[in-house]
Amino acid sequence: MPAATPAGRRLRPSVNDxxxxxxxxxxxxxxxxxxxxxxxxxxxxxxxxxxxxxxxLGCVTLLWRSSxxxxxxxxxxxxxxxxxxxxGSIPVLLVAGDLLYCATLxxxxxxxxxxxxxxxxxxxxxMGIVAVVVRDWRVALVYSTQIALFMLVPVWWxxxxxxxxxxxxxxxxxxxxxxxxxELDRRxxxxxxxxxxxxxxxxxxxxxxSAIAIQSEAVLSLADGDPAxxxxxxxxxxxxxxxxxAEMRAMIGLLRADTDPADPHTAxxxxxxxxxxxxxxxxxxxxxxxxxxxxxxxxPAAVDLAAxxxxxxxxxxxxxxxxxxCASVDVREVAGRIVVTVTNERTETIAADGLxxxxxxxxxxxxxxxxxxxxxxxxxxxxxxxxxxxRGAEL
Length: 395
Description:
With about 400 residues, the chain is α+β, with helices and mostly antiparallel strands.
């Protein structure tokens, strides 16, 4: 048997609609069999078979109450009109009320508004006509109550259910959106953490390893040189190796456990530790003049670390691209900001496109604490100048 088309599936009655139609038909037959189907005055000369047949036709329309609500309502109103010609009965009006409820609930928002307006206007006009035509106010009140019961109550009920359903759908959509935003935030946090780890690994390890490589090459070239010089270079190589291992262990410890930031074993380097950087650069062949004059400022840890890493990266680049040249390191406080300047003579051309990992890392570290970094050639050679706030990021 071929699979049903999507249109065919939409036209096929649902199990719930079939059950509803059978329930209405059974209850209607019970009403007719007990003789309590009349509204106010009904022509009881009409054979019950005709009434059951009209009710059955109305119940057939219930099979499409949810899939084709407007079509079912149109056919159901025609059946109701036929039943009205026979004197009217409660079972058929109940079927019509259910069809009206489903049409209000399942149609689009635009059709829903039109339908509600038509039903309300029709009910009010009908009540007005009844009030004018029927002289007995008691009878008019009974007729008006029946009109409200079978026309306005299903619409009001369907509108209430529809509003609750739309509110639930809006809440589900909002929850899905919040979940999506949370997922995007999580991914952004992961990407940011990876970038931070890459930056820290580069700053902590690459500088020391570059110095080790350059100093080792210098030792090899000094195989027959001054033993004191060789010993000094090897001591610097050892110091850089030990420093790299210590920083690597500290970083691994931070990644593996919730380590207290105040733990001295994982304390980051600070500006007051510049002497080790200067000695390492000197061992690599640079002639370094250092001036560290920023007073007794107690800098935020992030600013202190950023300044240290900028000096480290600048000296590493100087050792790499200007071996044997003169360099100067100047750290001072100017107008409430820490100004770090590293200048070296150039013995060869240095790429000035600013796309290197080291320059990118320096700029990123400075920006994270609200500072700036400028690097490029000048009259002296190559200069790196960083300005960092003394109180962290300036928001």
